[in-house]
Design goal:
The protein is mostly helical and about 90 residues long. Helix content is about 85%, strand content about 0%.
Length: about 90
């Protein structure tokens, strides 16, 4: 299937801004994690894991964050490693 030039521009802009999109998504997921309980919390961690994987974060680091089940630790990690990376 061939894409139109307009569709190609949209796709290019997405990939050009992928890092910022993932940052925003992780910020929202961190907030969700603070409020989530039970099965919902497990689902939020799965989404966080996928977002961190997309940002090429070390799998061992992701595993430690998930095992801690600590939103504060996740927020601290994101502030130090992810948000300052692009600034």
């Amino acid at each position: 299937m061939e894409r139109t030039p307009y569709q190609n521009k949209i796709i290019k802009r997405y990939y050009d801004n992928r890092f910022e999109i993932m940052q925003q998504k992780l910020a929202e997921l961190t907030t969700d994690l603070y409020l989530a309980e039970g099965k919902k919390r497990v689902q939020v961690w799965k989404r966080i894991t996928a977002a961190l994987t997309n940002l090429d974060v070390d799998p061992l680091c992701i595993e430690r964050l998930v095992a801690s089940d600590n939103p504060s630790l996740l927020a601290e990690f994101l502030e130090k490693k992810i948000y300052k990376k692009k600034r």
